[in-house]
Amino acid sequence: MKNISTKKMIILALFSALAVVLCLLFRVPLVPSVPFLTYDPKDVVIGIAGFLYGPVSAFIVSAISALLELLFHGGNIIDWMMDVLSSCSFLCTAAYIYKKVRSKNGAFIGLATGTLVVTIVMTAWNYFVTPFYYGMPQEAVNAMLPAIALFNFLKAAINSVILLLVYKPVSNALHKSGLVDKRESSVPSNSKTLAVVGTVVTATIVVIILAAIR
């Protein structure tokens, strides 16, 4: 993978800041039975970064924005990991597929696949992690799993629709302004991309194991 240019670092930093601002300003419960899970549009910004630069950039923006959000809202390393995992399972998946098929169909397939992945991954994470790290009875967590799955599906679906609507206008504006280099934004995914995604998956497995033996 090519070294990240200063311009790209600035754009990713701006995306991270915008994602946090949107998260702080706009929170709406989607499923009444799980009001502590709220919708925010920050994944739209992370998705734009991923579609422009690839899954690694989606991971970077997700990790930075989740860390900043943690500083504002409080929490612990598990909260951070679940936040990053939610965005990455959705948008790293979508960005990877879009890099392979750079078309409207590729974007649609990527987002649809990402929506299914995040729904499955976050439901599994809540099943294994929540009882141990947040002190909830397993039975109570099991009762919430359908609502949690519905929440993650709806959140990803809403952000997918918004991303499909805004990506091209935003992308064209960034390219025309010279802020984004077309050559840099079209660099294909490679082994380092897979290494980053693999790291997230490995972290998931480690946390689940730690939760199981705690």
Structural features, described:
There is one protein chain. With about 210 residues, this protein is mostly helical. The protein has one domain: Arp2/3 complex 21 kDa subunit ARPC3, CATH 1.10.1760. It contains eight helices and two strands. Strands 1-2 form a two-stranded antiparallel sheet. α2 packs across α4. The longest helix has about 40 residues.
Tell me the layout of helices and strands.
Layout (H helix, E strand, L loop, with lengths): L5 H20 L2 E2 L8 E2 L2 H12 L1 H19 L3 H24 L3 H30 L4 H40 L4 H4 L5 H23 L1
Antiparallel strand pairs: 1-2
Describe this structure in a few short sentences.
The chain contains eight helices and two strands, in the order αββααααααα. It has 214 residues and is mainly α. The protein has a single domain, classed as Arp2/3 complex 21 kDa subunit ARPC3, CATH 1.10.1760.20.
Keywords summarizing the entry:
Arp2/3 complex 21 kDa subunit ARPC3, two-stranded antiparallel sheet, 8 helices, 214 residues
